[in-house]
Amino acid sequence: MKRVPSNPSSLLRPSVRALHGYTPGEQPKVRGLVKLNTNENPYPPAPAVLRAIRKATDGRLRLYPNPTSQALRGKLASVHGCAPENVFVGNGSDEVLAYLVRAFVEPLAAVPERERSRATVQYPWPAYSLYPVLAGIHGARAHPVALGADFGLPPVAALRRGKQWDFDAALTFVTTPNAPSGRGYTTAELEALCVAQRGAVVLDEAYAEFADEDARALAFRHPNTIVTRTFSKAYSLCAQRVGYCLAHPEVIAALDKLRDSYNVNLLGQVAALATLENPAYYRKNFARIRATREQLRRELSGLGWQVLPSQANFLLARPPGAPAREWLDWLREKRFLVRWFSAPEISAYLRITVGSEREAAALLRAVRRGPRA
Ligand SMILES: Cc1ncc(COP(=O)(O)O)c(C=O)c1O
Q1: Is the CB of 232 inside a 6 Å radius of any atom of ligand 1?
Q2: What's the total number of domains in the chain?
Q3: How close is the Cα of 1 to the center of ligand 1, in Å?
Q4: Which residue owns the Cα nearest ligand 1 atom 2?
Q5: pLDDT, tens only, 163-192
Q6: Is 3 exposed, middle or buried (0-12, 13-18, 19+ CB in 10 A)?
Q7: Do 190 and 315 fall within a single domain?
Q8: Its pTM surpasses 0.85
């Protein structure tokens, strides 16, 4: 009789054994750090949202939540001027992105070589670093294509000339505004891409509320286009894990077939619904964060940092005088957490979340000293 091996990893699928999981930014266990590393919102949810969560925290927690997030879908539909059938809600937008891969992309093993576009997850790079992980989990091909040097989206004609871009890719993710650069894209350039693309296009608008322009209208104009959003960043609800997408009803129906039965927890649904009922509070926060972003950008630039324009709640900035990695460690010693990525296109930069006015001022005071001062 064959014995079960003592090392269970040999039982795993080889593709899972080889997988590199997503690396999240540090969630510190010590207090007193200024946390500018994961693009969280520096301001709390609206008081009415916290009240709604408290009010829902009672004996009803023993019951399953509404399986389709019905009330929240209805409210999102009225906010976005569409039908509830155009809306899908997930456990964070990460979950929605994962379902979209499952819905549109074949695993590589399921298609002949000449049809590998059907197993391709494509994305202009640099982008949200979860995309290659999602492709890997699904056994699909991750296909990054370099953005322009200024993180601009190459026009469709240039993509055709470049030959690397796959217009038949089963699914193309575009982070817009781009992360980690903060670069914004116009609806017109995104639309040109959606029209040219024969597969699905996912516009990941996790940071859209901080931008001058958003492209949600494309989800209603082009049946291959899906727009994803989150309550994490602009709406201060990272902990509750609620995201959603807008798309053609047939796409939404497919996602509903794939999802876990009760994929969005009760308190998440309650919190997101209450959030949408308090838009004035959040509009003020967006304006405040944008103002702090511009001020931080001006002041860092004045100190010799090369700071890219940003349409998001973070800045990508190249520090002067020492490598970014050295600045990262030095700032950590001074109790500031920021993010550094080893990818060669961005390893000279730090990504700094725009915190409160106070946090930005404290960061600037520290930065004036610098690691080699
Ligand atoms: C571009 C982008 N998309 C999606 C997400 C996921 O957000 P969540 O799962 O919290 O909704 C993030 C989080 O950092 C992000 O940066």
Answers
A1: yes
A2: 2
A3: 48
A4: 206
A5: 899 999 999 999 999 999 999 999 999 999
A6: exposed
A7: no
A8: yes
